[in-house]
TrEMBL record:
Annotated Neurotransmitter-gated ion-channel transmembrane domain residues: 123-153
Matching SUPFAM superfamilies: Neurotransmitter-gated ion-channel transmembrane pore (SSF90112), Nicotinic receptor ligand binding domain-like (SSF63712)
Keywords: Membrane, Receptor, Transmembrane, Transmembrane helix
MF terms in GO: extracellular ligand-gated monoatomic ion channel activity; transmembrane signaling receptor activity
Coarse class of the protein's main subcellular location: membrane
Protein species of origin: Orchesella cincta (Springtail)
Lineage, top ranks: Eukaryota, Metazoa, Ecdysozoa, Arthropoda, Hexapoda
Gene Ontology CC annotations of this record: membrane
PROSITE patterns referenced in this protein's UniProt entry, alphabetically: NEUROTR_ION_CHANNEL
Membrane topology: Multi-pass membrane protein
Spans traversing the lipid bilayer: 123-140
InterPro entries given in the database record: Neur_chan_lig-bd, Neur_chan_lig-bd_sf, Neur_channel, Neuro-gated_channel_TM_sf, Neuro_actylchol_rec, Neurotrans-gated_channel_TM, Neurotransmitter_ion_chnl_CS
Signal peptide (from-to): none
Protein name: Neuronal acetylcholine receptor subunit alpha-10
One Pfam family recorded for the sequence: Neur_chan_memb
Length: 180
């Protein structure tokens, strides 16, 4: 939970219904990170899962209820590098061997994709232009010295562009932070 979580809990009220049910609407910001698979980068989709359950109360004492299976995105803040494709909430009822009471757990799955508009300019466009130069070397006369020079310099330039981009964005590719 966020560092201001304790302050937020102290300022919330519990709603007591006439039938004895209590409703506690707690405000909190949870931060999570997940491993990113960059195999199909920049055309990838990432799935990150957050699990919520109570280890203090069983399913008879605490019943977590979801309002919608698609999640509430009314306070979602967009990110320049990632786009949220979908958010799904699924309830699982789990019984452990130690206890006879069931525990309700919610899995919140975030499906993210890379924002490719910036990547087209920074990575794909230079690689396409460099590859186009490599193809031009086949149209040059075979006895031309420039053909050899173009072929020799094209491969290291292509390598530097792709590796430079990977080094620049290495920390962003390892994990994506989901603030909720």
């Amino acid at each position: 939970a966020d560092s201001q979580y304790n302050q937020a809990i102290l300022s919330t009220n519990i709603i007591v219904n006439a039938d004895g049910n209590l409703t506690w609407l707690s405000t909190a910001i949870f931060k999570s990170s997940c491993q990113i698979n960059v195999e199909y980068f920049p055309f990838d989709e990432q799935n990150c899962t957050m699990k919520f359950a109570s280890w203090t109360y069983d399913g008879y004492q605490l019943n977590l209820v979801i309002q919608t299976e698609d999640g509430d995105l009314s306070n979602y803040v967009t990110n320049g590098e990632w786009s949220l494709i979908a958010m799904r909430v699924k309830r699982n009822v789990i019984t452990y061997s130690c206890c006879e009471e069931a525990i309700s757990r919610y899995n919140i799955q975030h499906c993210l994709t890379s924002t490719t508009a910036i990547l087209r300019l920074q990575l794909i466009l230079p690689c396409v232009l460099i590859s186009g130069l490599a193809l031009l070397s086949f149209y040059m006369p075979s006895d031309s010295g420039e053909k050899v020079t173009l072929g020799i310099t094209n491969a290291p330039v292509h390598d530097r562009v792709s590796h430079g981009y990977r080094r620049k964005h290495a920390s962003n590719q390892r994990e994506a932070t989901v603030d909720r």
